[in-house]
Design brief:
The complex is a heterotrimer of chains A (485), B (125) and C (446). Chain A has helices at 50-62, 84-90, 93-96, 108-125, 137-154, 172-179, 197-203, 226-235, 268-271, 328-364, 394-403, 431-450, 452-456, 469-474, and strands at 129-131, 162-166, 183-187, 208-213, 239-243, 263-265, 286-288, 300-304, 307-311, 368-370, 380-385, 410-411, 420-423. By secondary structure, chain A is of the alpha/beta class. Chain A has 3 domains: 6-63, no CATH class; 84-341, Aspartate Aminotransferase, domain 2 (3-Layer(aba) Sandwich), CATH 3.40.640; 343-472, Aspartate Aminotransferase, domain 1, CATH 3.90.1150.10. Chain A has a 7-stranded mixed beta sheet with strand order 1-7-6-5-4-2-3, sandwiched between helices. In chain A, helix 10 crosses helix 12 (431-450). The longest helix of chain A is centred in the C-terminal third of the chain and has 37 residues, at 328-364. Chain A is globular and about 75 Å long. In chain B, the strands form 2 sheets. In chain B, strands 1-2-3-9-8-5 form a 6-stranded antiparallel beta sheet. By secondary structure, chain B is α+β, with helices and mostly antiparallel strands. Chain B has helices spanning 26-32, 78-82, 85-89, 114-124; strands spanning 4-5, 10-14, 19-24, 35-39, 46-47, 52-58, 62-66, 71-76, 98-102. Chain B has 4 helices and 9 strands, in the order E-E-E-H-E-E-E-E-E-H-H-E-H. Chain B has one domain (4-124): OB fold (Dihydrolipoamide Acetyltransferase, E2P) (Beta Barrel). In chain C, strands 2-8-7-6-5-3-4 form a 7-stranded mixed beta sheet, sandwiched between helices. In chain C, strands 11-12-15-14 form a 4-stranded antiparallel beta sheet, with helices on one face. Chain C has a two-stranded parallel ribbon with strand order 1-13. The chains are: A alpha/beta (485), B alpha+beta (125), C alpha/beta (446). At the A-C interface, helix 1, helix 2, helix 3, helix 4 and helix 5 of A face helix 1, helix 2, helix 3, helix 4 and helix 5 of C.
């Protein structure tokens, strides 16, 4: 059955919107602009009524899994509940109806919010300053890498061309380093899934600009030797970058600066509960301490007596990484969340995130092979089914979960674990949900033995089954094409 | 003449004189998965031994192709460009990628025989 | 405890299952000397009402556009957005969902993005586009990186008449790459100085970037610039206002190579410049060089049609350091808002809005110039924004503001040679009264 695109619901003459009466005299294009530039072709946009549009999109919304409806244990994504209060906060017209070119005297409340938000982030992480410009985690990483590059260039330390990245890292780490012009050196993890500290000592040297790490790492393990690693890198004159993706279990427990990190980014859409929106918008503020903070993207937020202002006098800044000031509504939501949580709430977040992940590890370990015996932090990684005799793979298990109304966890990541299943329940899920999930996972593990075809051909209950990805890449159809073309 | 293999999973088959065909091994196409696209060089381009001469894209990766020995491209297999799946179907036959004019025949001695290649793969596993 | 559902009993049971006695024991692998010994120096958590009240209080300290008759533009164009848009976007299925990596569980998002991609292609006249980038500025930067990937040349030409923020972001993004950005001056009509362009065009030039319209609101000579650039095999990147494109011939007619731009004007709120997306579109030939994720159409085993993220092999999570870009997310919800907005307005609505902006801008310009209230700077080859000169602009602006009119963006700080110049944008929702009020207030002051 063919999917009906919105373009195919076109009915000539339908209108979804009308303007107020046009009382301004009309002017002719030809009097001011080249006639041949004027559009002669139709746009081929569909003509629809408001109800047509509402129905179409409401049906699409229903076809999605979402945190509001489903358990979403994606590793390193921290799919926690998105509090509705934050949405209400972001609806304030006092924020949404501000123009970026308005004068500072008109936006004091906006500046104050960002100033206060920065203070909270500083307190939590131990960094000294944050810039809110980066629009996402990856943008934050790129900013961090560019800052590090400029830092060394300033000191005429031209040799610092390399960034070290563990083989367990998220793909944006090496991509951001490469985009900033660094050579990426990958360091292998040891048997325990942690950074091999001897290997680090060997690789680290005068060519090392930085080591990029997330802690806990992508196996959910805490890099216990982090202080030693920091010493090694710093002794060689390099810097330590923290990928904030796994910040959730550290809140109130340990500060990023205390682990020796010099610079970091935060994923507001992970740790601070701003919604993922199907893939964006997010927020990736970048923070730094010591001399590095001079290189932060501008503008920063300043305060002088009672007035807030935009700080542009940052001669060492890497410049702008986004137009204007950042994904502002995301900042407002994060701020609302932090107000609600307070210092004790943050601590509870960390504790329950770790409690939930360890609980799941215990409940699942009879059927799934833990990637490591060590206790995990906020996420747990399994190397597929314990029973290796079946031909059911992690990919199939993920698809079968969909039939049970659970969004699959992260699969095949980290790359160093075969048939990896990476599960991060987050602290907002209850024991019941976790028990249900464990029950479902157990059921699927049994199906893998007793009825493998059922799993291998899953999902069965969704509007579409497994889609032919090879076909999509071989014969790309990436847009609707109007009929007359 | 039998095929010879490189450690980066390309094969070479000498045709006549100094002309040879180059493709990826059956093992490679299995590991890569469904091939969706090939980026191959123009005829006339020259490459050193082990130099990257193109890319092979599957749904899960884009991998580099390395020329097993130095040479000049004299033919490109349009059939795989039009139908990348051919590389999965017949990687060591109709799914060849390019033909080259070999620059230095002694470089053939540095490549692996089919048995050596099989042992090499077994090790990798 | 906000958002944490565990009861003490449940916590106890769970700890027992794990074999731990307390929550503290969960953190045993945290080295002792790293542990925070004291509480964070933050306030206690507030109740929902207290938190909202505090935020309302901050919001009240701002003077937003509701308080003014605003003519501010410069890349962010606030205007009325239909109520249905918000209602659609607020559905949990859209905003609390994740990136659609598991296609079967995300057909809603995937189809919505596919439709968004289609809309952008229809507007620009290009063959393919990706699922959106962060904003217009990064879209320009990504376009330049893309051009460089295509022809490996090291020089890029762009006008100083391109948005100052976009140029700054381009500079930041290209700091790590070997590339030379050359800024071209503008002529007396505010457009790229063609003789200077010709002089700088050679076989080293990767791309020429031209804005449509440019920061001053002026419509550049796309045809001539593209012809000149292509003579040297340089690519042409057009930075376009997507609403303006509804009135313009599909850019494929001019054989433009890449079209990018800022999407705020299509259904996004002003939000202090923070709510937006960027787009980048290109010809079929460059499909595999485009950054960002892409949604494609395909079928399942039963022949049912569906949508998937495709061509992911180019992206960061697979290619890592060889990726086309480091971009991991798109601005999915904003791209969705764009689609919904275009669907609600339709072809008629979009064109009507673009025409209303055009008429209003020219009406205001004519009034101001004919009444000798302003001096012309670049003339009238504009669409919806124009530049005029007003002596003692600083004073005049302050006074206008006291009369609740935000007259426009003062260009002096951004372009030293444009002291006392004002960039005025006229939104399509403004009434004749709003425009006459501007004229009359200015008249009184002068």
């Amino acid at each position: 059955m063919k999917k009906k695109l919105i373009f195919e619901k076109n009915v000539a003459g339908r209108r979804g919107f009308s303007f107020s009466k046009d009382d301004v005299p009309r002017y002719l294009w030809e009097d001011f602009l080249p006639a041949e530039l004027k559009r002669k072709e139709k746009l081929y946009f569909p003509q629809l009524s408001e109800l047509d549009v509402v129905r179409h999109y409401s049906r699409l919304a229903e076809m999605n899994f979402s945190v509001d409806k489903n358990f979403y244990p994606l590793g390193s994504c921290t799919m926690k509940y998105n509090p509705k209060m934050n949405e209400l906060a972001a609806e304030e017209r006092g924020f949404s109806q501000l123009h970026p070119y308005q004068e500072e005297e008109d936006v004091q409340g906006m500046l104050e919010l960002l100033y206060l938000l920065e203070k909270v982030l500083v307190e939590i992480t131990g960094m000294e300053r944050f810039s809110f410009q980066p629009a996402a985690g990856a943008a934050g990483e790129l900013s961090g890498m560019l800052m590090i590059k400029k830092f060394f260039l300033q000191r005429k330390d031209f040799l610092r061309q390399e960034v070290i990245v563990p083989d367990s890292s998220h793909g944006t780490n090496p991509a951001s380093a490469a985009l900033a012009g660094f050579k990426v050196v990958t360091i292998k993890s040891n048997q325990e899934g942690l950074v091999d500290i001897d290997a680090l000592s060997r690789i680290c040297g005068s060519r090392t600009a930085a080591l990029m790490l997330t802690n806990p790492n992508t196996l959910g393990l805490f890099e216990e030797k982090i202080w030693d690693m920091a010493e090694i890198v710093h002794k060689q004159g390099g810097l330590l970058y923290y990928d904030g993706a796994n910040l959730n279990p550290l809140l109130g427990k340990v500060r990023i600066s205390d682990m020796g990190f010099d610079i970091m980014h935060i994923n507001l859409h992970k740790t601070f509960a701003t919604p993922h929106g199907g893939g964006g918008p997010g927020g990736g503020p970048v923070g730094a301490r010591g001399k590095l903070k001079e290189f932060l993207p501008l503008p920063l937020i300043g305060k002088s007596q009672d007035r807030f202002y935009l700080e542009y006098k940052l001669p060492n800044s890497i410049g702008r990484v986004r137009s204007f000031y950042g994904n502002i509504p995301v900042m407002v939501k994060a701020f609302a969340y932090l107000l609600r949580l307070g210092k004790e709430g943050l601590l509870r977040v960390a504790e329950h995130a770790v409690l939930n992940a360890n609980y799941l590890k215990e409940k699942l370990k009879n059927y799934y092979e833990p990637a490591t015996d060590k206790p995990c932090w906020h996420e747990v990684v399994f190397a597929g089914l314990k029973n290796k005799t079946t031909n059911v793979r992690t990919f199939d298990i993920a698809k079968r979960l969909i039939d049970y109304g659970v969004h699959p966890p992260t699969v095949y990541f980290p790359l160093i674990v075969k048939e990896a299943l990476m599960i991060e329940p987050t602290e907002t899920e209850s024991k019941q949900i976790l028990d249900e999930f464990a029950g479902v996972m157990e059921a699927i593990a049994k199906e893998a033995v007793n009825n493998p075809q059922l799993v291998k051909e899953a999902p069965h209950t969704t509007p579409v089954g497994r889609l032919d990805e090879a076909k999509a890449a071989r014969q790309p159809q990436l847009r609707w094409v109007p009929p007359s073309a | 003449m039998a095929k010879l293999y490189s450690k980066s999973h390309e094969w070479v088959e000498v045709q006549e004189g100094s002309r040879a065909r180059v493709g990826v091994s059956d093992y490679a196409q299995k590991e890569l998965g469904d091939i969706v696209f090939l980026e191959l060089p123009d005829v006339g381009k020259e490459f050193h031994k082990a130099e990257q001469f193109g890319t092979i894209e599957s749904t899960k990766s884009v991998s580099d192709l390395f020329l097993p020995l130095a040479g000049k491209i004299v033919a490109v297999n349009q059939a795989v460009i039009d139908n990348p799946a051919l590389v999965n179907q017949d990687p060591e036959g109709e799914g060849w990628l390019v033909e080259i004019e070999i620059e230095d025949k002694t470089q053939l001695e540095e490549l692996l025989s089919p048995q050596d290649y099989r042992s090499f793969i077994a090790q990798e596993h | 405890m906000p958002y944490i559902p565990h009861t003490p009993k449940e916590r106890q049971e769970m700890l027992e299952t794990i074999g731990k006695k307390s929550l503290c024991q969960l953190f045993e692998t945290l080295p002792v000397d790293l542990r925070l010994r004291k509480e964070l120096n933050l306030d206690r958590g507030l109740s929902e009402k207290e938190a909202l009240d505090f935020i309302k209080q901050l919001a009240a300290k701002n003077k937003n556009l509701d308080a003014y008759n605003s003519f501010l533009g410069g890349g962010v164009y606030p205007h009325f957005v239909p109520a249905a848009l918000k209602a659609i976007l607020q559905q949990g299925g859209f905003y609390t969902s994740y990136t659609p990596y598991q296609a079967e569980a995300s057909q809603g998002t995937l189809q919505a993005i596919y439709e968004y991609q289609s809309y952008i292609c229809l507007l620009t006249g290009m063959d393919v586009t990706s699922a959106s980038l962060y904003d217009g500025a990064s879209a320009v930067a990504e376009s330049i990186l893309m051009a460089r990937r295509i022809n490996r040349r090291k020089k890029v030409l762009l006008g100083r008449s391109l948005h100052p923020e976009y140029r700054q972001v381009v500079k930041t993004y290209t700091a790590g790459i070997e590339i030379d950005i050359e800024e071209l001056k503008w002529d007396k009509e505010g457009k790229i100085l063609l003789p200077e362009l010709e002089m700088n065009l050679n076989d080293d030039v990767s791309a020429v970037v031209v804005a449509l319209p440019n920061f001053f609101g002026l419509v550049e000579d796309i045809k001539t610039i593209t012809t000149l650039a292509h003579k040297h095999n340089a690519l042409v990147i057009v930075v376009a206002n997507p609403l303006f494109l509804s009135l313009v011939q599909p850019l494929s007619y001019y054989e433009v190579d890449i079209v990018c731009g800022e999407g705020q004007i299509l259904g996004q709120r002003a939000y202090w410049g923070g709510e937006t997306f960027g787009f980048i579109a290109t010809r079929q030939e460059f499909l595999r060089k485009i950054p960002g994720r892409i949604v494609g159409r395909t079928t399942d085993k039963k022949g049912r049609e569906g949508f998937v993220l495709t061509l992911q092999a180019r992206e960061q999570h697979i290619r890592r350091e060889k990726a086309t870009s480091n971009i991991c997310s798109n601005q999915s919800l904003n791209a969705l808002a764009c689609s919904v907005y275009l669907s609600l307005l339709g072809e008629q609505g979009i064109k009507a809005l673009a025409e209303r902006i055009f008429s209003r801008a020219h009406y205001l310009y004519e009034q101001l110039v004919s009444k000798k209230l302003v001096q012309e700077v670049f003339g009238s080859h504009f669409w919806g924004e124009f530049v005029v000169k007003i002596p003692h602009l600083e004073q005049v602006g302050k006074e206008m503001k006291r009369h609740r009119i935000l007259a426009g963006v003062k260009l002096g700080k951004l372009y030293p040679q444009l002291e006392n110049c004002l960039l005025v944008f006229v939104d399509g929702d403004k009434s004749k009264k709003d425009l006459d009020s501007f004229v009359q207030t200015l008249e009184k002051l002068i």
